[in-house]
Design brief:
Chain B: It comes from Allosphingosinicella deserti. The complex is a heterodimer of chains A (about 80) and B (about 260). With about 80 residues, chain A is mainly α. Chain A is about 90% helix and about 0% strand. Chain A has one domain (about 5-75): Up-down Bundle (F1FO ATP Synthase), CATH 1.20.20. In chain A, helix 1 packs antiparallel against helix 3 (about 45-75). Classes of the chains: A mainly alpha (about 80), B mainly alpha (about 260). The interface between A and B is medium-sized, with 14 and 17 residues.
Chain lengths: ~80, ~260
C-alpha cells in the first residue's frame, strides 16, 4: 500500500472513534433521562453535571475527528 | 463553494483572507482579516443586543426580558457552581458566553447566497486558544492570589492514603494542565466539524442538480437537502451547547480556584 492510500485508510479508521463517541454521548443523555423520569424533582439540579458528562464524552470523539483531519490535510 | 464541478472543497471556508493589508512590525504583517471583521461584527451585534435591553424599566419590554433572561441564566449558573463569591466573575463569564454564542451563530448565517460569506471566528484554534488561555490565566491568578502556595493543595485529593500521593499528584497535575487545551480544542473542533459536514452536504445538493443524468437530482439532491435542514438545526443546538459548556467549565475551574474543594 502506498503512503497516500494509507493516509485515507487511517482517516477512515479514525471515523470509528467518532462513532464510539456517539455511543458515549447517547449513554450520557440516556442515563440522565432514565433517572430524571424516576425522580423529576431532582432533574433540574443535575443539568450542569449532565453537560459536564456530555462535554467529556464529546471531547474524546472530537479528538478522533482531529486525528482524521491531521491525516487528511497535515500529514 | 465547490470550485470546479464535482470537486467539493470543504476547507476553503476556513481560509483567513486579508481585507486591509495594514502595516508590518518587525517583519510581521498586521492585517485586518475577514476573521477580525467577523469578530468586530460579533462584538457590534452583542453591543446592540445589550444596549437595547439595559434601560432598566420597571416593566420590562420584550427586548429587556430577553437580555434579563440571559444575564439571569449566567448569574444562576455562577451562583449554583461557585456561590456568593462567584458574583465578581459573572461579567467575565457572561461576556465569554455571549461572545462565543454570537460568533458561533453568526458563522451559521446563510448570507452566502447573496455573496457575503460568513466566517466562523470560533472555528480557529488560535481564537479559541486565546479564550481558553485567558480563562486558565484568571483561574491561576485568582487561585494564587487568594490562597498563595496553599493553592497547590488542589493537586492533593482529600482522603487518599499518603502512599498513593506519588501517583495521584502527577495525575491531578496533568489533568489540571490539560484544561486549557481541552477547552480550546472542544469548541474549535465542534465548529469546524459541523461546518465541514454542512459544506459536504451542500456539495452533494449542488453536484446532484448539475449532474448529466436526470435521475440523480431526486435521488441524491433531495435527501441531502432534507438531511441538511436537520443538520442545520442540530448545528444551531451545538452552537448554543458549546458556548454553554465553555462558560460552565470556566465557572467550575473558577470554583476550584476560589473554594479549593
Amino acid at each position: 500500500m502506498d503512503a497516500e492510500a494509507a493516509k485515507y485508510v487511517g482517516a477512515g479508521l479514525a471515523a470509528i472513534g467518532v462513532g464510539m463517541a456517539a455511543l458515549g454521548v447517547g449513554n450520557v443523555f440516556g442515563s440522565f433521562l432514565e433517572s430524571a423520569l424516576r425522580n423529576p424533582a431532582a432533574a433540574d439540579s443535575q443539568q450542569g453535571r449532565l453537560f459536564i458528562g456530555f462535554a467529556a464524552a464529546e471531547l474524546l470523539g472530537l479528538l478522533a475527528f482531529v486525528v482524521a483531519m491531521i491525516l487528511l490535510f497535515v500529514a | 463553494m465547490a470550485a470546479e464541478a464535482g470537486k467539493i472543497d470543504p476547507m476553503h471556508q476556513f481560509e483567513v483572507q486579508s481585507i486591509f493589508d495594514g502595516f508590518s512590525i518587525g517583519g510581521h504583517q498586521i492585517a485586518f482579516t475577514n476573521s477580525a471583521l467577523w469578530m468586530v461584527v460579533a462584538v457590534a451585534t452583542l453591543w446592540l443586543f445589550m444596549l437595547g435591553g439595559m434601560k432598566r424599566q420597571l416593566v420590562p419590554t420584550r427586548w429587556q426580558a430577553a437580555v434579563e433572561g440571559v444575564t439571569g441564566f449566567i448569574t444562576s449558573m455562577m451562583d449554583s457552581n461557585i456561590g456568593p463569591q462567584g458574583r465578581k466573575f459573572t461579567p467575565y463569564v457572561f461576556s465569554l458566553f455571549m461572545f462565543i454564542l454570537v460568533a458561533n451563530l453568526l458563522g451559521m448565517l446563510p448570507t452566502g447566497i447573496v455573496g457575503i460569506h460568513p466566517f466562523t471566528v470560533t472555528s480557529h484554534l488560535t481564537v479559541t486558544g486565546v479564550l481558553a488561555i485567558v480563562s486558565f490565566g484568571i483561574v491561576l491568578i485568582v487561585g494564587l492570589l487568594r490562597h498563595g502556595f496553599h493553592f497547590f493543595s488542589l493537586f492533593v485529593p482529600h482522603g487518599a492514603p499518603w502512599w498513593m500521593m506519588p501517583i495521584l499528584v502527577p495525575v491531578e497535575l496533568v489533568s489540571f494542565m490539560v484544561r486549557p487545551f481541552s477547552l480550546a480544542l472542544r469548541l474549535f473542533v465542534a465548529m469546524t466539524a459541523g461546518h465541514i459536514l454542512m459544506k459536504v452536504l451542500a456539495g452533494f445538493v449542488i453536484n446532484g442538480l448539475n449532474a448529466e443524468a436526470l435521475w440523480v437530482a431526486p435521488v441524491v439532491s433531495l435527501p441531502s437537502f432534507i438531511l441538511m435542514i436537520g443538520i442545520t438545526l442540530l448545528e444551531l443546538l451545538v452552537c448554543a451547547i458549546q458556548a454553554y459548556v465553555f462558560a460552565l467549565l470556566t465557572s467550575l475551574y473558577l470554583n476550584d480556584a476560589i473554594n479549593l474543594h
